[in-house]
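Re: [help] complex structure
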Amino acid sequence: MGKFRKDSGKELPAINTSALPDIVFMLLFFFMVSTTMKEVDLKVQVKIPSATEVKKLEKKSLVSYINVGAPKDQFRKLFGTEPRIQLNDQFANVSDIGDYIESERIQRDEKEVPLMTTSLKVDAKTKMGIVSDIKQELRRVSALKINYSTRKGIKEN
Amino acid sequence: MPKKLPEYNAASLADIAFMLLIFFLVTTTMDTDLGISTMLPPPVPEDQENDDKIKERNIFVVLINKNDQLLVEGKLMHIRNLKEEAKEFIENPARDENLPEFKEKEVDFFGLVEVSKQVISLQNDRGTSYGLYVQVQNELAMAYNELRDELSLRKFGKKYDDLDKAHKSAVKKIFPKSISEAEPKNYGGN
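Output below.
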């Protein structure tokens, strides 16, 4: 039958790849959009200590951060060189932590509140005084799960 | 009729897009948060009196002063020796009279075992540096982790982290992490 004749002599037609970039661009946009990080502008210098017995912080959405360190150069004039606390975008005092934790709690589901963790990103050179104050304040508002943020490091000694 | 424009070759456009894609994939490695997790003790009601006394031999006292020196059980100690000392205290292999007591306890998979009544008491000054504090926490955590690892290897032939949940909690019951932090005091000023 003539209808099904073999065209063995001809080359295979090239696959039309003009849609491939579209697919890849779609992937690209997906990753670009989904990896928008919630970057907080750090106003304090934080060089966290290193430790070996570290655990990963799970459920990032349930973590609230407290940064402690000396103010960066451009804020020294106003805030001095003593370590300060930064919550969200602003400098804060120990007494503001209660409110901060409360506002973080309101944003979450009631069921998730006991699972919430407070991550302390504290500069290694900070004195414990301010850290103890923060811990006492966290205890007062019953935010008991805390995590001392560290880098994974090799043992120094 | 005008001549049809020749189709341009779009095959390499995909390569360019892939390159961009890979660039973003590589550069947006989100920094995973690592750290030492602990629980703070619940707030103490003001009218409560502290009368639950723990025997002296069951407490491992670690003091850190404002010059970042360690006083462990009354002895000045370098931090590199802390882990071994803590391990010996927790395990008390020789059943030393000055080291913690044991209580018999029923634990799954192990049966009746002796569980140490150990408590590590950590106290720091307001002038202690945070870096050293974390290091001490780290050493103590390592002491517990190594003991758990040793026990897991002996019993199950696997490291503690590779055990399943039930086994893990059994091992945890034998070596419970009990680090108590005293209310902060100000000895030396900031």
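Chain B has a mean pLDDT of 83.
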